[in-house]
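The material for today's practical consists of a large collection of protein records. There is nothing in a record beyond a sequence line and a structure line. As an example, a complete record with its sequence and its structure tokens follows:
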Amino acid sequence: MNNQIKINILLVDDERASLLFLTKVLDDPTYHLVCANSAQEALDWLRLNQECALVVLDINLDDSDGFEIAKFVRAQPNTKDTPIIFVTGMSHRPEYLAQAYALGAIDYIIKPFNPDIVKTKVAVLVDLYRKTIQLQQTNAQLQQVILKHQQTEQALREQSQTLRAILDATLDIIIMLELDGTIVTINPTGAAQFGMNRNEIIDHCFYDLLPPKVAAHRILAIEEVIRTKKSVFFEKDRSGLWFECNFYPVCNEEGHVIRIALFGRDTTQRKQAEEELRTQQELLRLVIDSVPHLIFWKDLNSVYLGCNQNFAKMANVDTPEHIIGQTDFDLPWKPFEPSKFRADDRRVMNNNTPEYHLIETTVGPTNGQQIWVDTSKVPLHDATGTVIGILGAFENITERKQAELELQRSKAALEQANAELNQFKTTLDMMLDCVFMVDCEESPFFYVNQGAINQLGYTQEELLQMTLSDINPEYTDKELSEWYARLYDGSLPALTVETIHRHKNGTLIPVEVFVQYIQVSEQVHCFVGVARDMTERKQAEAYLTQAKEAAEAANRAKSTFLANMSHELRTPLNGILGYTQILKRDNTLNAEQQEGIDIIHHSGEYLLTLINDILDLSKIEAERMELDPTDFQLDDFIKGIVELFRMRAEQKGIAFNYQPLSPLPKGIHADEKRLRQILINLLNNAIKFTKQGGVQFKVSYCQGKIRFQVEDTGPGIAPEFVTKIFQPFQQVGDLNDKAEGTGLGLSITQKLVDMMGGEIQLDSVLGQGTTFWAIFKLPEVDAVESLPADERIIVSYKKNAPNKVIKILVVDDKWENRSVLIKLLTPLGFEIVVAVNGIEAVGLALMSPPDLILMDLVMPVMDGFTATGKIREKLKEVVIIAVSASAFDFHQQRSMQAGCNDFLAKPIRAELLLERLREHLNLEWVYEQAIADTKNEAAEHGTNQMPLVGPSAQQAAVLFDLAMIGDIYGICDYVKQLEQSNKQMQPFAQKIYQLANDLKDNDIRQIAQHFMENTQ
């Protein structure tokens, strides 16, 4: 017990003073003092408490004496050894002391108390009590150790006995050796191996019992065990006997090897059994691999345990061993087959009943062809008869099954062939063509159809006695035999010839004959011929030939008419429109006269538009129109169109709204002229047919595609007319409401859209309006920089040879055409010589060779082509530019072939003509500033040098677009509108009229661009 644990000390005295004295004297933190005033109180406490280190007991108590309490203490098992100190006031009464010691008292104290004596005696007895308790605890621990040691010894004895029994019973050799090889322990099996008993072999040297070579090997093995502290195993065949030996190190607590344990086993019988089993397995393998059947075996889970070589090959595995552990789901069967195979396996194993001749199909692993197998499956049992798997064998019966199926197919094919033959004969008899078959070895027909009978007029019996030469008077038997030979050897795959057949009544029938050699089988082969009556086709061909010739003549007439119309109409129109522009500049005309001039101008412009539409349609239909794509600024392009039609809409009193639906590219790559023509046609129609509401123009661009959409609130188009709207010369709707025009605008628009690789569609609601949209795939290009405005106006020219006047010969039979060229070129300093036909042109050119000739192509007396050829014979270097009112490309090509250097179409654009002169004559122009000239003109008209009032930037953009497309008449109309809206713009308008009269649309474009850039 720990010294710090409090111990119980019982103080018994009927005097309170004595108890108080004792408690003060024995005041100690390790004491637990229990005070009792009477014997009964002391006994009650003793009965309730198990331990007490010391009892201090007064002999004389009121209710009893102390001896009774002492007897009780000695009678209790837990307190029988508790020391008792008697307290008495009777000094040295022998009878009391004797009785006290007899009851087990250790000592006594005489009242009155001496504190030191009391304290000392109690301390001694308490210390004795504590040591006694410690001794008891130590004894108890020793008893436990002894008991555990005894149990361990008993367990070791039992373990030793068990181990000895195991060693004695085991068939393996077990030997314990000292490091020098001395045998310490050996079991009976080991002793018997050496022909000795255990007692005889103990203390012998292990190496002495072995042959020298074996002993040397074992010494090396033991040395290795001692050195590495690891076991050594080896298996050795010794004179036909097999042993497995294992040397283990036995180490002490420090890890040092102190002994060697040898375990050995004679494996000769096992090796012999394994060899015998291997031989049997090899024999079984040879047997199952030699049979033609495919054999396999599986466990209860249908996992393959093995197979023969044939099955492995069919399952597409390298060797039979590779199939072990796989299931049917791992093999190349059809998708539905593994589940079926597994179901068959489970049924056989669950029923414990074999199943034979299960016809199954599967797919070959390499060629993917279907194979048929006849499978038998039997359950496998262990020694107790329990099902442990399944054995299966199947035979490839594909050839037999295919033969059966082929027999069935042949039978069905024969029946089908007979049915088809009957159907074929019926079909052939229904044909109007003549069908015949000729045997390869005999000439007469062996089959003719009803068509042959009807076509030739013979009976079937008569035809079967005839040959091909009997009905064909054009070819002899020799020629027919040559054809047969070429068809037979394959040099002529088939023969198609137009010939004649003779009817029974002698009538000759034009026919187309097709003959081919066919071989159905080795026994069945023949020539098959089909003759078709060509009487109606020949008549139709003759009719078509006549119709084609008539159509070609009509087409030539149309081309001639269009060429003549273009030439004949453009020439007077050029004069009419030119002089209307001159007259419109005359300020002396009154309002009525000016209105008359406007009517003439608009009528001429409208007629020119009609001519251009017809010529465009003709070019498109003849596939002679070509696109000229370039890079241009989309923003400026759209701005010009929008401003033009916004003005037209305002004049008509309807709304016009432009709405970009997405960000638009800066520039695109397309044919700007044709794209403008498409949009002008669509917007012009929308404004023309809209009387109330307005027109919306929407543009969007996404992923390289641009969409133009025109919406109007016009009368709409009825559904039955939607398909006709794009046809030439069509104007749908009420005849009373039809607008002016040829009806070619939308037809040309659609064809231009198709040429540009786009698509155009419409959506219309009758009475509400129409929406047209066109979509083009136009690539985006970098922003196209606008060319700087060149405001200079050409007034003269420079040439390398000073003071030399350039002579130009103008050849044209029309005075108005010559007049335009004279008025254009004479002010610039050119010497102009004129001729009215080709003969005059040749004479003037040869008499005084000019520097350049402007040659009209269509003239009386001698045309321009002939004249050019004659001039070119003598004058090789003179520049000849063809000038023609023809809009057809073939005139341009013909002129170049005749010897012209270049080509210009009427009406002539001034800037284009001047550019050609500069190129061919190597000229340098002398310019006058266009804007300065405009201001001077304004001053001359009485503006008192005030700043010239011009158009706004938007108005200038419209003027720029009109100049870009060369619309001289549109320019004059638009400038007139500007002049009427602002009288201060009259000087500006007069200058534009003058430039338009001179066909200087390039100068007009430069002026417009100046105002676009310098005004808001």
